[in-house]
Design a protein that fits this description.
Length: 126
């Protein structure tokens, strides 16, 4: 599956953005897990959150809990990352990724995701 991430931009601290991750070439299956990761300059790629396509199980990292939520639109074959109360430290390139698994457990390990989108820049000004 090919992934296209979009929705990044420049926003002031306290503002909101919604990122989208659209699948093309094929559709998400019941075994798909879609994850969001972010990478700031000079830092490692960090797990932000993920959602299972079947059943809508989601989880987000502690660093964004209460501010970020993940949802999906089955008809549009798209996963969203709603980011509220943005902080300057949220500045990063955000990537969506997908993996197939029969496990219901959310996986936060980036290397286990096999399909990656191109990334979208999020910049939060103070």
């Amino acid at each position: 599956v090919q992934l296209q991430a979009s929705g990044g931009g420049l926003v002031q601290a306290g503002g909101s953005l919604r990122l989208s991750c659209a699948a093309s070439g094929s559709t998400f299956s019941i075994y798909t897990m879609v994850g969001w990761f972010r990478q700031a300059p000079g830092k490692e790629r960090d797990f932000v959150g993920a959602i299972r396509w079947s059943g809508s199980t989601t989880t987000v990292a502690d660093s964004v809990k209460g501010r970020f939520t993940i949802s999906k639109d089955n008809a549009k074959n798209t996963v969203y990352l709603q980011m509220n109360s943005l902080k300057p430290e949220d500045t990063a390139v955000y990537y969506c990724a997908a993996r197939s698994t029969i496990s219901t457990a959310i996986v936060a390990s980036a290397p286990t995701y096999t399909s990656w989108g191109q990334g979208t820049q999020v910049t939060v000004s103070s």
